[in-house]
Amino acid sequence: FTQPAIGPEQWIGDALGVLAALLWAATTLSIRATKLSTASPEKTLAYQLGVSGVLLGLGALWHGDSWPQQLSALAISSLAFQTIVVVFASYLLWFWLMRHYPATRLSAFTLLTPVFGLLMGVLLLGEPVTARLLLALGGVAVGMTLVNRKS
After folding, report:
1. Residues 49, 56: contact at Cβ < 8 Å?
2. Domain co-membership, 24 together with 50
3. Same-domain status, 30 and 81
4. Do 29 and 103 form a contact (C-beta atoms < 8 A)?
5. pLDDT in 10s for each residue of the chain, 151 residues
6. Does residue 123 sit in the same domain as residue 144?
7. d(Cα 134, Cα 122) in Å, to the nearest integer?
8. pTM beyond cutoff 0.85
9. How far lies 149's CA from each of 55, 109, 116, 138, in Å?
10. Spatial separation of the C-alpha atoms in residues 130 and 36, rounded to whole Å
11. CA 31, 36, 40, 42: dihedral to nearest 10 degrees?
12. d(Cα 151, Cα 147) in Å, to the nearest integer?
């Protein structure tokens, strides 16, 4: 991860990014269009994690991955952060919001992802806040204002 992935297979990362966006949209639509739209956020999260766990486990087996022999404290704390903050808290909030607001309104809030990434970098990693980052945050704020304004 220290060198840019430039070369003939560079398109794979772009394709995976587009696929991730399509799958995110499919997840949102399937939750809104099925009985999950009336299910509790906890139940929706349980279904999503169950299906994801099975698919990722099968993918790891197919790829030939194995369980690490030992885990460092950093790996364990990173996994705990991902589990508690990213999965548990943020997805429960997201699914609750999806039950109460239209998907078209909520989709604009995915623009906040880089904002949360920036805040976590500053708070947890001590990264500096620069003028360029503040300008980027301003751009996100302008974009969200434009997307959510009443027409």
Report:
1. no
2. yes
3. yes
4. yes
5. 566 667 787 888 889 889 998 988 888 888 888 888 888 888 888 888 888 889 988 988 898 888 777 889 988 898 888 888 888 888 888 888 888 888 777 777 777 888 888 888 899 889 999 999 899 889 888 888 887 777 6
6. yes
7. 12
8. no
9. 39, 13, 22, 16
10. 42
11. -70
12. 10
Question: What is the rounded (10 degree) CA torsion for 19, 21, 26, 31?
Answer: 140
Question: What pLDDT score does 131 carry?
Answer: 93
Range of the domain at 133: 103-151
Query: Model confidence over 75-109: pLDDT tens digits?
Result: 889 888 888 888 888 888 888 888 888 877 777 77
Residue 3 inside a domain? The answer is no
Give the span between the Cα atoms of 109 and 92, in whole angstroms. 15
Asked if 123 and 54 sit in the same domain, the reply is no
